[in-house]
């Protein structure tokens, strides 16, 4: 029999009655930090039945029933007699807390929804020229075996891909179920599990439909119209054999596999599945073979996934042999959870004990239960004080201030801090899948506190408001900061990030290694086009006439790579925070050292790495080069003023809607640099900017001819001010005292930004990619993996369907976003360049922001090493077969011997060690800035206006237009509101006898009103009032 993979189900009764040494080992879990270990053991409080602690355990809370020595079945019969069965059943759908009912319905009936993550990621591509990564599982092909990342189910589900038909992937599972989806989250993948397509043909021929729409396929699934098991038996048998082989491997190495968390170390970290396998398997297992077998990798994968808190698969990461990423929790987190669980279990056992047992002494609390009792009393006191200043709400946040918040309690028991630590993991950090057994623990703590009877569900959202009420986090905290946090980054609970261990010492820069190569660009005026609030000025442009209607466009980029070594602690910190965080209220630079900004932010006399292209007035690129330089004559100008000089206009009108709550700030503070206004420019400077604008437009037209997005949608933006507020951290407890609420302003901004800036920055990326490709320098190329293969289909779909909508200012449907994702393969990075269709470029790499984006810094390190090598040898590194080619040749992932030994990073280093972490960290950062973080601020403003009447009268409409985007098989309707394009959900109780799901189609428009808002989970729920129109697409 297999031993347990983890210690999740250690029996608390056994621990309580085990040997003293075992009990002492469990008690050591109380020490979850050095600070806790230094605290003296506190005396155990005495507890009597008259204690006010028990005042809230009347009938409303379930009075503890004294059963004496009755057997467990007799206890249950008594309980059943006293608590008649309720006619209510669990909801058919996934409830707002995120937990799904899998007791009444088969897994397939939940539709294998991907929760819109792919659409969220792809929306960035059409609203932002600087879109982040969105690696996609659309690269799954017929014959691939995947494990489905469905969080509402703890038993792994394996599914074989049968192929993509009419835009939908068809799968058949190991449990004999057929389902379809336009995209899903795969936790594990075996490429080419079935290599011979003939093996799949009988199943494919038995599919009920390969041409039906999404609605038709859903109806077929609900009718269980999939291929018969008799036809699919060989496939099921093959999948089951794979599972059996993986279990055999697991049994053989179970001793070490079951101790994975101890083996991999006490600190939190991110690691690939291969890295975990390397650490857990003996070296002999991999001898004489290039990699572990799929069965060996799956054995490790299932062990890690079985440990609720210790390991968490990162479902947004790209999935291949090297990129199945896990976030491993620290030993502090695991031990704190174990300790909290023991304390709550012992407390619940105490309540179940009789007050007396014959001649024996009265029941007595254990030390842990007694400390938990003290914690509950203090939590109640803190909550009651908080509610004098702020109301509790069921909307995922506590209400705005009615008066100054009370000073946080000055003393919490040691165990109380451990309980709070767990509550943060549970409610803030997205640490637990919805199938985790540990959800009971957070709910039990809240029920014991007895202050949340009005909550619909005692779930993580209530836990989040609990942390706000006791002063552990601010009332306006952004949950996405915690949910998207990755190992190696620590949050400051009052806002921003905690410093790194080495940040106490001054940052040290090396000598400028490119000094002998630098060209003085003093003869050129460099235009740095950024907002006045920009502090890291990392790019500027200039122009140089080359004669005959030809011009050199120079993009001058800040050059920190020349003085920061790739293996320095500054570089290591930048790798952990791979881009500047622009989330309002939580701004943090990738390099927050003053010396870096003062040395490299573009200014007269500072170094640059200059990307140059020789172009014609019609947008043809004739030549390119990269030159280390020094800028001298610098003009700072805002994008709005530069556009006014050039004569640019937004291709898509920007809505003028504004929504705000709170007190607007006075004039903001800006960096001390002189901004040039249009009237201050010389005639020559105006002409140069106009010429740059003309050339930028010509270059953009060339890209449009190759498929580039013609117009970027406007998008909501948020401005937040804390002016006039007070946020204080109590030095003795680290709890937070607040006064006031932030001002929040929601409006729209142009998604594409200035065409002058965007087009020229893309030119720099085009030059960087071409220059490195010609020399076979591995860099993080920005790719769309399937664009080359699907170019004809992409051109037809975008030109005929997608782009006309964008140019008309109309937002594509969720289905169209998914189709675009499936055709392009999403946005990713690779050392092998390929067509980037949506940019209209044969190859592209980001290169213009090394002060705020780690991927750009990586590219600079590689380029500068190549420049130094060419300078040292006096020879060009350009490969003859690549010179002048714009269409990439095939590239192997192996590194040529010695040829590129001068580079700081080999191709193998990048692909196997750096990219897996970089793509995940960069994607999480972009989602925090542009999607989840912004959405949460908007929903906080919505709650303050809707529930508390804040803001200008009439600015929040009483009703909204709700455009249907998806009808769920279990009768949930999803769509978009005509209020800042917010997504909303209509649950059955919101149908209001107005709509029936079977009659609703995608594209229908309903008039709705708000039913409730959950800012913590970033969800809006609406109630139907009437059917506006039926416009099924």
Automatic annotation (TrEMBL):
Q: Which GO terms describe its biological process?
A: mRNA catabolic process
Under Gene Ontology molecular function, one entry of this record is:
RNA binding
Query: Which residue ranges does the record annotate as region Disordered?
Result: 654-676
Identify the residues that the record assigns to the RNB domain, covering every copy.
Answer: 518-869
**Which residues are in coiled coils?**
none
Fetch the InterPro entries from UniProt. NA-bd_OB-fold (IPR012340), OB_CYT4_C (IPR057912), RNase_II/R (IPR001900), RNR_Ribonuclease (IPR050180), SH3_CYT4 (IPR056625), WH_CYT4 (IPR056624)
Any one GO cellular component localisation term in the record: P-body
Q: What PANTHER family does the record tag this protein with? A: EXORIBONUCLEASE CYT-4, PUTATIVE (AFU_ORTHOLOGUE AFUA_7G01550)-RELATED, RIBONUCLEASE
Name the UniProt record assigns to this protein = RNB domain-containing protein
Q: What is the organism of origin for this protein?
A: Cercophora newfieldiana
């Amino acid at each position: 029999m297999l031993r347990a993979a983890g210690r999740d189900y250690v029996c608390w009764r056994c621990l309580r009655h085990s040997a003293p040494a075992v009990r002492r080992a469990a008690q050591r879990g109380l020490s979850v930090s050095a600070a806790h270990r230094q605290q003296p053991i506190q005396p155990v409080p005495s507890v009597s039945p008259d204690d006010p602690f028990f005042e809230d355990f009347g009938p409303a809370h379930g009075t503890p029933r004294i059963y004496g020595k009755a057997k467990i079945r007799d206890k249950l019969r008594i309980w059943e007699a006293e608590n008649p069965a309720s006619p209510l059943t669990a909801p058919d759908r996934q409830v707002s807390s995120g937990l799904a009912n899998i007791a009444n319905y088969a897994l397939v009936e939940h539709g294998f929804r991907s929760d819109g993550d792919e659409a969220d990621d792809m929306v960035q591509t059409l609203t932002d020229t600087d879109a982040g990564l969105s690696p996609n599982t659309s690269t799954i092909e017929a014959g691939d075996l995947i494990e489905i990342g469905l969080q509402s189910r703890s038993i792994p589900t394996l599914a074989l891909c049968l192929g993509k038909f009419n835009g939908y992937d068809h799968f058949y599972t190991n449990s004999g179920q057929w389902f379809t989806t336009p995209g899903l989250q795969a936790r594990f993948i075996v490429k080419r599990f079935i290599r011979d397509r003939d093996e799949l043909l009988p199943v494919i021929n038995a599919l009920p439909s390969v041409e039906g729409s999404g609605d038709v396929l859903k109806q077929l699934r609900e009718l269980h119209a999939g291929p018969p098991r008799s036809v699919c038996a060989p496939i099921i048998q093959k999948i089951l054999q794979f599972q059996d082989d993986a279990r055999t491997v697991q049994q053989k190495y179970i001793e070490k596999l079951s101790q994975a968390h101890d083996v991999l170390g006490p600190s939190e970290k991110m690691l690939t599945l291969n890295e975990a396998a390397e650490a857990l398997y003996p070296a002999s297992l991999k001898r004489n073979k290039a990699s572990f077998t799929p069965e060996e990798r799956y054995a490790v994968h299932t062990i890690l996934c079985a440990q609720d808190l210790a390991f968490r698969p990162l479902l947004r990461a790209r999935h291949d042999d090297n990129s199945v990423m896990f976030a491993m929790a620290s030993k502090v987190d695991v031990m704190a959870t174990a300790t909290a669980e023991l304390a709550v279990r012992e407390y619940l056992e105490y309540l179940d004990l009789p007050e007396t047992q014959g001649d024996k002494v009265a029941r007595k609390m254990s030390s842990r239960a007694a400390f938990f009792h003290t914690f509950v009393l203090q939590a109640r006191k803190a909550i009651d004080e908080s509610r004098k200043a702020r109301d509790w709400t069921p909307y995922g946040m506590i209400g705005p201030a009615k008066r100054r918040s009370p000073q946080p309690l000055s003393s919490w028991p040691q165990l109380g801090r451990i309980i709070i630590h767990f509550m943060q993991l549970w409610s803030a950090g997205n640490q637990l899948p919805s199938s985790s057994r540990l959800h009971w623990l957070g709910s039990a703590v809240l029920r014991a506190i007895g202050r949340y009877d009005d909550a619909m569900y005692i779930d993580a959202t209530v836990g989040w408001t609990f942390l706000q009420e006791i002063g552990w986090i601010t009332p306006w905290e952004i949950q996405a900061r915690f949910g998207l946090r990755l190992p190696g980054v620590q949050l400051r609970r009052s806002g921003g990030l905690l410093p790194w261990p080495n940040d106490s010492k001054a940052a040290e820069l090396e000598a400028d290694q490119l000094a002998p190569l630098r060209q003085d660009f003093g003869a050129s005026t460099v235009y740095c086009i950024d907002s006045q609030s920009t502090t890291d000025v990392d790019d500027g442009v200039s122009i140089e006439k080359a004669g005959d209607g030809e011009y050199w466009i120079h993009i001058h980029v800040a050059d920190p790579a020349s003085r920061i070594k790739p293996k320095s602690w500054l570089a290591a910190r930048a790798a952990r925070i791979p881009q500047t965080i622009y989330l309002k209220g939580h701004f943090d630079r990738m390099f927050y050292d003053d010396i870096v900004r003062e040395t490299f932010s573009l200014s007269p006399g500072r170094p640059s790495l200059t990307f140059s292209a020789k172009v014609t007035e019609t947008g043809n690129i004739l030549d390119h080069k990269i030159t280390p330089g020094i800028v001298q004559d610098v003009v700072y100008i805002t994008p709005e003023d530069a556009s006014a000089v050039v004569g640019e206009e937004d291709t898509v009108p920007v809505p003028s809607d504004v929504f705000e709550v709170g007190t607007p700030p006075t004039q903001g503070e800006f960096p001390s640099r002189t901004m040039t206004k249009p009237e201050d420019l010389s005639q020559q400077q105006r002409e140069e900017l106009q010429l740059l604008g003309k050339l930028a437009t010509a270059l953009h037209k060339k890209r449009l001819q190759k498929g580039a997005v013609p117009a970027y949608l406007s998008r909501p933006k948020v401005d937040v001010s804390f002016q006039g507020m007070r946020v204080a951290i109590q030095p003795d407890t680290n709890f937070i005292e607040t006064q006031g609420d932030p001002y929040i302003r929601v409006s729209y901004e142009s998604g594409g930004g200035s065409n002058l800036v965007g087009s020229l920055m893309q030119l720099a990326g085009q030059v960087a990619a071409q220059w490195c490709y010609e020399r076979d320098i591995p860099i993080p190329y920005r790719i769309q993996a399937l664009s080359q293969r699907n170019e004809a289909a992409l051109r037809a779909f975008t030109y005929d369907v997608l782009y006309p909508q964008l140019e008309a200012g109309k937002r594509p449907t969720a289905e169209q976003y998914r189709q675009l994702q499936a055709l392009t393969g999403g946005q990713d990075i690779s050392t092998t360049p390929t067509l980037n269709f949506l940019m209209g470029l044969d190859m592209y790499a980001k290169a213009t922001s090394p002060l705020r984006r780690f991927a750009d810094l990586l590219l600079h390190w590689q380029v500068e090493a190549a420049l130094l090598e060419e300078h040292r040898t006096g020879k060009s590194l350009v490969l003859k077969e690549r010179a002048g080619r714009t269409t990439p040749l095939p590239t192997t992932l192996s590194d040529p011997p010695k040829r590129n030994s001068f580079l700081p990073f080999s191709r193998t280093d990048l692909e196997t060690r750096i990219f897996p972490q970089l793509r995940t960290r960069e994607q999480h950062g972009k989602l925090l800035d542009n999607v989840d973080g912004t959405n949460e601020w908007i929903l906080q403003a919505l709650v303050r206006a809707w529930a508390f009447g804040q803001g200008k009268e009439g600015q929040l409409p009483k009703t909204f237009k709700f455009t249907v985007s998806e009808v769920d098989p279990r009768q949930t309707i999803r769509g978009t509101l005509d209020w800042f394009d917010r997504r909303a959900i209509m649950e059955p109780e919101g149908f209001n006898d107005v709509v029936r799901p079977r009659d609703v189609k995608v594209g229908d428009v309903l008039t709705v009103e708000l039913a409730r808002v959950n800012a913590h989970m970033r969800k809006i729920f609406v109630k139907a009032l009437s059917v506006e129109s039926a416009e099924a697409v």
